Known about the structure:
single chain; alpha/beta; 8-stranded parallel sheet; two-stranded antiparallel ribbon; 10 strands
Amino acid sequence: MLGVHCSVSGGLQNSFDEAVALGIDTFQIFTRNQRQWKAKPISEEEQQTFSAAWKQHPQVKVIFSHSSYLINLASADPELQKKSIQGMTDEVKRCHALGLSFAVLHPGAAGEHSEEDAMKRIAGALKDIIAETSDSKVKILLENTAGQGSHVGYKFEHLKNIMDMVGSDRIGTCFDTCHAFASGYDISTEHGFDNVMKEFDNVVGLKHINAVHLNDSKGDLGSRLDRHDHIGQGKIGKLAFKLMMHKFAHVPKVIETDESDNMNVVNIELLRELGK
C-alpha cells in the first residue's frame, strides 16, 4: 500500500497514468483546484470516466483526496467558517461520487483565539458536515500538523479532543511524518519511533491511522517548519521510513515531495527497498 500524490491535470482519470507508470497500488489526488473556493460539480460523465479507468487498473486498491488548503474549520470568522463547511461538505460529496475512501483535512488555524475554542469550532463544523453527508461512508482524516502559525493538530491530544467531540466513526487520522517530527515528535531513532507510536496509541489509538504521508523534513526536530524533503535526505533519515513501512504495511501510504527530476520514482524505489 504505497503511492504518491498523483496529478489530475487534464482530467481526474489521468491520475491513473502516473499510478500505472509508478506501479503503485494507492494514491492521493485533489478532486478540484485546491486554491479556489469555486469548483464545478463532478459530472456524471466524469464519474463514469474515472470509474472506467479504475476498472482497467484493479491493482489500485485505495484512492483518497486531500481537501482544499483554503478550508479552515477553526475560523472564528462566521463567513469563512461557513465557506469552509460548504467546501468540506462538497469535498466529501466529490469523494463519494468517485468512490474514494477518505478526504484528508488540515484541522485549521485558531488565529487570535485559543486552541480550545478552535477545536470546539472544528468539531461543531465536522458534525454539520457529517450530517450533510449522512448517505456517505467517506471518512474525514484529520492530519497532524507541523504547528506553523496558529494551526492546531500539532499535538496528538488535539486530534483526540476533536474526535471525541465529534463522536463519529467517520473521523479518522492521517499521520504525516514530516509534521510529526517538525512538531517535536522524534521518530528518527528506533527508541524515539517506538515511544512516539506508543504515545499516539495511548492518546488517539493506532487503529485510527487510516492513511500515512511519508515525507522527510527540511526542518529540525520541533522547528514547526512544514517543509517536506525527499526520503532519507532530510533531518528524519531513512530509519524512520523503514520502521513506518513495516509498522503500517497495510495502511495506504503516499509521498508528497517535489516530483521533479524523476524523484517520485527514486522515493518509491527506496521505500520499497526499506519495506523488504
